[in-house]
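Morning, I've got a small favour to ask if you have a moment. I'm working through a protein record and want to make sense of it properly. The fold is given in discrete form, as structure tokens running alongside the sequence. Can you walk me through what the tokens say about the fold? Thanks so much in advance, here it is:
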Amino acid sequence: MGLTGNSVLVKYLIFAFNLLFVIFGIVLISVGAAVKAKYHEYELFLDDKFFSVPALLIAIGVIIFVVAFFGCCGSVKENYCMVLTFSLLLVVIFILEFSAGIAGYVLRDNAETFLESKLKESINNYKQSNSTAKVWDVMQTNFNCCGINKPEDWDREYHDTNGTLPASCCHTEYGLWGGEPCSTASPYRNKEGCLPKLGAYVADHAAMLGGVGIGIAVIQFLGMVMACNLARTIKKSYESV
């Protein structure tokens, strides 16, 4: 059994592509794990949808290592079944990557909508739950923000006429202003709401997931074409024997 010159070139291109494919797998795992870790800090405010996309990318990255084995062995040994299996698995991974990419962009476009209801729900538990208070304090400190859309959102939680705010609403380097609790009268209070800032943070990372998923899927399409071409050539060579 022998392959033509062009088919031999395709064979070694697929072998080289698989080395690149392994790098893609590492990129998917790294990006998925990094975004998942970023989201974990604000898990209280995020829906499961925000964790499913990075988890899917991590799973795809792991599967890629298995798929690359079929691609390398099949192309070097000119094994039709292994190359065909590789081609079919590439199609499946392509669909998964494209789906993850689209899901990432959908999350980006709807980030604030998803977050608003969670923020409204959790702000009412600030005094009742230490874990809720901790997440709110971390967010308000990290983003230099206060309340959902404005500092006055805390009025319903504190039920007073002094405009009392959580200490995290004031710049941390000042702590308490003039020995008084942080309030809407404090000159060092955070004046912007948290929803736009957290929404932008979550949306940026969702867009990263979408870009990586679709970007790698598009590049991978070339590998699918080469693998299908090699499988067809190997099959013809078998039939001609």
Notes: The chain has two domains: 5-113+208-240, 127-196. Residues 5-113+208-240 form one domain. The chain has a mean pLDDT of 80.
